[in-house]
């Protein structure tokens, strides 16, 4: 068990560091040992991590298959806290694919479990997941209510993950409602916190949100730099943009490119793509006038 548990811990650590290959190898080795030992619950934790890796790399079909196997074991063993975490991640996978009705169901199942258990950290994460679903469905009042509750819990617990996640989603809700001052404040604070934590996937999300804000405010070259920086981050971690976001993303890029011309847009994109992450985050966090361009 000692070796299996050590591999288990390292698998989760390397997954958080976006070292997907190492994490997958460690998870697979640990899973094999747990199965040999007959430890089904611990084996499920490795199936869960393999599902997380698959979803992080955009292989949602594989993630769902692994999550179904994980669910069958944890339902059998009655591990409700682990089930709550599983439903939260499964909610994100369904959301990423645009399966929003399914995502809503999984998110509510997750929230119900954590509310019953009184697990505030779990409650906040479930609320964030449901807030994202509501945003994508255009239910902005519901999204805001859920996300503000999640943010309040995050501050209460000093949760360095929940706070920026809730702020990021609130910023995207504000962007969809054309509340640009709130968008800028929330996304930039979220970006600052994610940069401190080195949460690269979420940094890319913030860059993309701020790029849309810049394009809307008449700064297409600033937007191009931010999109270029976001693409560089995604290439580094092997984490593609979620399909559910793709159409709006491509439309915003097309409009910004048309506003400044192909050559200038491509040059600004390449500049952002080549920029070190810390420099890109610093520039993205600067207060910029509505019609200013960064130079």
Contiguous runs where pLDDT drops below 50 for at least 5 residues: 290-295
Whole-angstrom Rg: 20 Å
What is the count of DSSP helices, taking H or I runs of 4+ residues?
15
The end-to-end span amounts to 57 Å
Structural class: mainly alpha
Order of helices and strands: HHHHHHHHHHHHHHH
Principal-axes shape call: globular
Compute the average pLDDT. 95
Strand content: under 5%
Secondary structure: number of strands:
0
Helical proportion, percent range: over 70%
> How would a textbook summarize the main sheet?
none
Describe the protein in words:
The protein is 83% helix and 0% strand. It is built from 15 helices and no strands. Residues 290-295 have low confidence and may be disordered. Helix 4 (60-77) runs antiparallel to helix 5 and helix 7 packs antiparallel against helix 8 (140-157). The protein is an all-alpha fold and 295 residues long. It has helices at residues 2-16, 20-37, 40-56, 60-77, 80-96, 100-117, 120-136, 140-157, 162-176, 180-197, 200-216, 220-237, 243-260, 262-274, 277-284.
Observed structural traits:
single chain; 295 residues; mainly alpha; 15 helices; 0% strand; globular
Question: Summary?
Answer:
The protein is 83% helix and 0% strand.
Q: Topology of this protein?
A:
Blueprint: H1 2-16, H2 20-37, H3 40-56, H4 60-77, H5 80-96, H6 100-117, H7 120-136, H8 140-157, H9 162-176, H10 180-197, H11 200-216, H12 220-237, H13 243-260, H14 262-274, H15 277-284
């Amino acid at each position: 068990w000692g070796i299996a548990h050590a591999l288990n811990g390292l698998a989760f650590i390397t997954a958080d560091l976006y070292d997907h290959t190492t994490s997958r190898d460690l998870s697979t080795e640990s899973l094999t040992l747990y199965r040999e030992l007959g430890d089904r619950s611990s084996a499920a934790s490795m199936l869960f991590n393999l599902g997380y890796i698959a979803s992080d790399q955009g292989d949602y079909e594989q993630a769902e298959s692994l999550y179904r196997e994980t669910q069958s074991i944890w339902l059998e063993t009655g591990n409700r806290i682990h089930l709550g975490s599983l439903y939260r991640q499964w909610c994100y996978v369904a959301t990423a694919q645009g399966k929003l009705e399914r995502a809503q169901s999984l998110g509510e199942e997750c929230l119900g479990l954590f509310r019953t258990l009184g697990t505030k950290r779990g409650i906040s994460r479930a609320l964030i997941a449901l807030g994202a679903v509501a945003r994508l469905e255009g239910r902005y009042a519901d999204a805001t209510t859920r996300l503000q509750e999640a943010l309040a819990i995050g501050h209460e617990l000093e949760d360095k993950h929940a706070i920026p996640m809730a702020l990021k989603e609130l910023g995207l809700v504000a962007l969809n409602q054309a509340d640009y001052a709130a968008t800028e404040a929330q996304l930039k604070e979220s970006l600052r916190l994610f940069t401190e934590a080195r949460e690269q996937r979420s940094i890319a999300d913030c860059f993309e949100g701020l790029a849309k804000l810049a394009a809307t405010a008449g700064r297409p070259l600033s937007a191009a730099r931010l999109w270029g920086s976001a693409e560089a981050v995604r290439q580094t971690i092997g984490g593609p943009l979620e399909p559910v976001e793709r159409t709006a993303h491509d439309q915003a890029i097309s409009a910004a490119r048309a506003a400044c011309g192909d050559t200038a847009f491509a040059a600004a994109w390449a500049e952002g793509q080549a920029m070190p992450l810390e420099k890109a985050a610093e520039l993205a966090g600067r207060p910029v006038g509505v019609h200013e361009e960064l130079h």
